[in-house]
Amino acid sequence: MPVGTRSPGTRPAVSVVQGAEAPGAQRAHPGDQLPAAWCVLPARVLLVLTSQKGIQVSSWFLPAQAVFARGIAAAGERFICVGTSSGTVLVFDIPHKGTNVTVSEVLEEHRDAITDIAAELGQGAGDLVTADDAGTLCIWSSGEEFTLLNKIPVVPNIPGEEVTRALVPSCTCSSVKLWNGVVAAGYGNGQIRLYEAATGVLRAEVNAHARWIYALDLAPLTGKLLSGAEDSFVHVWKLSRNPDTDDVESPACPLLGGDAPTGRRGSKAACWACGCAGCTYFMCRSCWLLFPLQIEHCHAECVTDTQICGARFCDPEGCSFAVTGYDLSEIFRYSQV
Amino acid sequence: MSGRALPLLFLNLGGEMLYILDQRLRAQSIPGEKARKVMNDIITTMFNKKFMEELFKPQELYSKKALRTVYDRLAHASIMRLNQASMDKLYDLMTMAFKYQVLLCPRPKDILLVTFNHLDAIKDFIRDSPGILNQVDETFRQLIEVYGCLSAGEFQLIRQTLLLFFQDMHIRVSIFLKDKVQNSNGRFVLPISGPVPWGTEVPGLIRMYNRNGDEVKRTEFTTDGNYIPPQREGSFDLYGDRVLKLGTNMYSVSRPVETHMSGSSKNLASHAKENVAPNPLAKEELNFLARLLGGLDIKKPGGSETGFRLNLFTTDEEEEQAALTRPEELSYKVVNIQATQPRHGGQPLGQGAHHRREQPGHPAAGPARPRHHRGPPRREHGHGARHQRGCLHEHAPGRGDLHRPAGGRVPPGRALRDRQECALRSHPRPGGHQGHHRAAAGAHPPRPLLRRPRQGPQGVPPRQAQSPRPLDHPAFSEVMTPVS
Fold first, then answer.
1. Domain WD repeat-containing protein 54 beta-propeller, which positions (chain A) (predicted)?
2. How far is B53 from chain A (nearest CA, A)?
3. Which chain A residue is nearest to residue B223, measuring alpha carbons?
4. Which of A146, A257, B297, B401 has the fewest CB atoms within 10 Å of its CB?
C-alpha cells in the first residue's frame, strides 16, 4: 500500500494516504486482523490470503475444513502456520522452490477459534505463539515436529479467591506478538499482558484501552509496542529489561562460564551484563532473559470518531506507524519528528 | 463471518421499524384502533413461528436488497400502505439507528442487550394481546438459548459481521445530528469518556510482576480519555434491567424524524466500488427469501377495514420531493417476489399488500401515476414490447424507481447487477438479454474487484461473467400488478 512521505514540522506529524486496494485483496474487514500476510521465509517471500473458502498461498489454493481461517505467521525456516475457527493450527511446509506445498502438521491444542499467531524467526525454542477466543496462549517450538513449550491458561474468575497477579479475568486474546522471548498479548477487555515465553509467567499487565484491542505491533530493533483499539486510541509503549532490581540473580553467561562480572558496560557487540562477545543486541539472550521485564507508556494518539481496526509500525525502529479504522477509506500515518 | 448474525439483524431492525411506525401513526393521528391493529399485525408477522425457525438457522447475512424486501413485506403486512419514498426513508432510519447501536456497543455481548431492549419495547406494544406476547416470549427464550453461552470472541465476530453490513452507510439523521451523536459528515461520534464496559478496567495503570507472581512495581499513564468504572451489568434474563440505553425508543411525537439525502460520502467512488463480480450467492439469497416470505402470512383486510397510507414525511409534497431528489447511489433495488402461489388464479393480492415497481417501456403499465412522473421525460427505446416482465435495463431512466437524476448517468458496475436481476425476473428465454447490454451506450464492462487465479490444483474454475439462468422456482414467475 502506498505510504506517504515523512512530513516535516512539529511532532506528531501526520500524513493522510488514500488506501489503495491491492489487486486481489478485499477491503480489510473490521477485526480481521490478518486476512492476509506477507510471510518472509529465508528462501522466499509469500503472500498468504485467507477467506471463507479457504487459504490461498500466493497462487496455490488449499481448502481448509473450518468455517474461517485467522492468524497467519511464518515460523521456523520453512513453515507457514494458519489458525482456524475450530482451534486447530495448520502448519504448511513450503519448499525452497516450486509449488509442492503440503500440510506438515495439525496442532490441536486450542479448543476455541484461533485469533492470532505470532512467530519470531531464528530464535530457537519458543518461537511461535498462538492465541484463541478464550484467551488461552500456547507457545511452541517449530521444527519437523512442533512441540508445545507452554500453555498459558485463562485466569479463572473464582469469586472470593485472592489472586495476587492478574486481577482481571481474561477475555478473548485478540492479538499477539512475540519478541525476544516476550509474548505481548492484547485482549478484548482492553488489557495488554506481557508473558515470558520460556516459562509462561505473567510479567506485566497494562490497563491500556477502554475497548477491544484490535491490533498490536512490535518494532524489533527497539522493543517499541504499538496498540490500537476500538476506543479510538493508539498507544506506543516501550518494552525493556531492567537490571536495577533485586530480582536478578547473578547472571552466568554460558559462553564464559562461571560467575560473570556485572555492572560493566560492554561495547555494542559485547553483552552489557556479562561481557561475552557475539550479541546481536546490547545483551546476550541468556542474560536478557534473566532481567525483569518493563513496559512504559511513550505516546498516545486519538483518531477522533474512529474505531481503530489496524495499526502497524512502518519501520523496524518504530519511528512511524500507520493506522486504519472502520468506515475509513484512508490510512493515517504518524511519524516521530 | 458469523452465521449467527441474521436473527439479531432482523429483530433489531424490526424493532426500530416499529418505533418509527408507532411515532408516525401518532403524529398522523391515525385512530387508536387502526394503529393498534397495524402494530399487532406487523408484530404477529415478524414473530411468526416458521419465519423465526428459518431465521435462526445458521446462515450468512444476505444482501441489503434481500433484507429490504423482507421489510417491505413486513410493513405491508396490515392495512397500512407506504409509498416508495416513505419506505425508503423508513429503511434509512432503521438501518442508521441500528448501525449506531452496534457501533457504540461497549462490549460485543451488549449487542444482545440491545436486542432485548427492542424486544422489551415490542412486548410493551402488544401488552394487551396475550397470544402475540407468547410468540415474542418464545423468540426471547430462543435468543437466550442460542446466544446466552457464546464467547466474547463469537459476539465480536457477530458484531463485525453486522458492521460490515453497514459499512459506508452515512445517511444523516436529523435526530442524531440534533443530539450530537452524528457529525455533519454522517459519521457517528465516538465518545472517549464515560463508563468503561463491564469487565474492562479504566485505562491508566501498569502493573509489573516478578517471577513468583508478586506485584513489584506500579506506574500510571494519562490520556485525553476520561473514563470511569462501570456501574453494573445489564440483565440477560427474560425480564430485568438492561442498564444499557442503546436500543430503547428514542422517538416521540414531538420529535419528527428526517433524513438528509445528501448524506452520501464525498467520495462517491466508494459507492460504485461494490463487488460487481457475479454473485454466486444471488440464487441462494433469493431462494432463502422465498422460503422466508412463504412463511409470512399476508393479511388481507376484512370488509369493514379500510386501508390507509402512512407518510414518513410531514406533508405529501415533501414525500414527492424526496422521491424525486433521492440520489441515485442511495436507491434501494428491491426484488419483487411473490412467494405464494397466486390465490385466485393469478389475480393480484388484496389491497395494500404490495405496490408494484414500474418497469420502463412497459406498454401495459397503465396510466402513469402523475405523482411519480414529474421527473425528466423517459427515453423510449423501442423495445418495450420485449420487456413486459419488468426487466431492469441499465440505461433506461426511470427504471421503476423514481429517483433518477436528470443526467441519467449509470455508475459503472450496475450493468452486471441489473443483468442478474433482469434474468431472475423474466421468463426463461434463450439467449438472455445480453444483446441489449452490448448495445448500452457508454457502459463499460465492469471489472471485477477480486481477481482470482486462473486455476489451482483443486481445479477452482475461473469466474465467468454470464448471467445466471432464471430460476425455476414458481416464486419468480410473476410480477405484481399495480395496486390501483
1. 36-253, 294-337
2. 22
3. A300
4. A257
